[in-house]
Amino acid sequence: MSVELDVFVGNTTIMDEEVYQLWLDGYTVIDAVKVRREGGVLDECEANADVVLSDTMDQYRTFQMCERLLHSPPKLANQLLFQITPHRQTILIERYYAFDDAFVREVLGKKLSKGTKKDLDDISAKTTVTLKSCRRQFDNFKRVFKVVEELKGPLVENIRHHFLLSDKLAKDYAAIVFFANNRFETGKRKLQYLTFQDFAICAGQLINNWTVGAVGPDSFVDNMVEDMDVDLDKEFLQELKELKILITDKDLLDQHKSLVCTALRGKTKAFNEMEANFKNLSRGLVNIAAKLTNTKDVRDFFIDLVEKFIEPCRSDRWTAADMKLYLTHYTNSVHILDTFKHQVVWDRYMGVIKSCIFKMYHD
Length: 363
Known about the structure:
Layout: H1 17-24, H2 29-38, H3 41-45, H4 49-70, H5 74-78, H6 86-97, H7 101-107, H8 114-117, H9 120-127, H10 131-148, H11 155-163, H12 167-182, H13 196-210, H14 234-239, H15 245-248, H16 250-264, H17 271-290, H18 295-299, H19 301-315, H20 320-332, H21 343-360
Helix pairs in contact: 2-4, 10-12, 11-12, 12-13, 13-21, 16-17, 16-20, 17-19, 20-21
C-alpha cells in the first residue's frame, strides 16, 4: 500500500504569539493546551488534541531555548540558531520585558535583592500573577538595574540601547530603576490609591529635573561622574534649604500670601480655605524641600506630599482644577518678591512638585 506524505522544509522559526503569551504568563503546557482548546484552536486548525499538545510542547521548548538570548536582547539579532525576522524579534523582546502593573506596584521602591525575591510567593497570591511570571518580571527588573546602574548618560537611552525596548517601556523601566535606587516608600496605606503609572510619571519628572544628569554633562569637570540619571543631585538638594526663608521671614511669608490671595480671589469656591490654610500649606511644601538632604526624607517624599499637602486640600474639598490654580499662582507669585534671591532653585523645585501633585491628586 502506497502512502503519500507532504513535507515542508524551511528555516524560519515559527512562533505562535498566543502560545508565547501563555508561556510568559507561567502556564504549564497542559494548562496552555486547555486554554488553546477552549479558544477554538481545534476548529481553526482542523487539528486533534494530540497535535495541539505536540505543537504547544514544541513551542515551549523553542521559547525556553530563546530565553537566554532574551536576557541580552542584542544577542538575539546576531545568533544563527533561530531564523527570526526583525519584526518578530521586536515582539519577543517587548513582551518578554513587559510586566503586570499589579506586580510592579508591589515591588516598586523595594531593594531588588534575594530578600524581596523571597516575598514573591505572597505577591503572587495577592496579585493572582503566577509565581513563574512574578519571577521572570522580578529577574528582568534586577537584570536591567544591574546593567544600567553604573552607566553614564541618560537612563532611558541606556535601557533602550542595551535592551532594545520601546520608548514607553524603557521609560517605565527607568522609573523602576530610579525608585529601586532611591528606595522611595510606596507601600504605605495612604499611597495605595496611586498606580504604577502615577509613580512612573513622577519618576520621569524627578529624573529629568532633579538628578545630576538633569543639569547637563557640560557642567562636569570630572568625566568619570557616573549614575547621572539615577542619583539625585546632592548640590541641588543642599540649595533647597535656602527656600526656608519663604516661611521663616515673616515679611516674605505675608507678601507671598497677599500676592497669591489677590490672584485667586473670585476665581474659586475654595478661596476662603486657601486663604486660611496658606501658611500651613506653604510651610509643608518648603519643609519638604529643606529636608531632602536626609536619605530617610527622600524615601518619604511621596508620603510627605500626601500628608502635608494633598490630604489637607482634600479635606477642604478642593477640586483638581482648584489645585492647579492654587499651585500655579503659588509658584509664579514668588517671582514678584524683590528680596527673594533663589528663583532658579525655586522653579526647579516647584516644577517637579506641581507635576507630581497634579498626578497624585485624584479628586
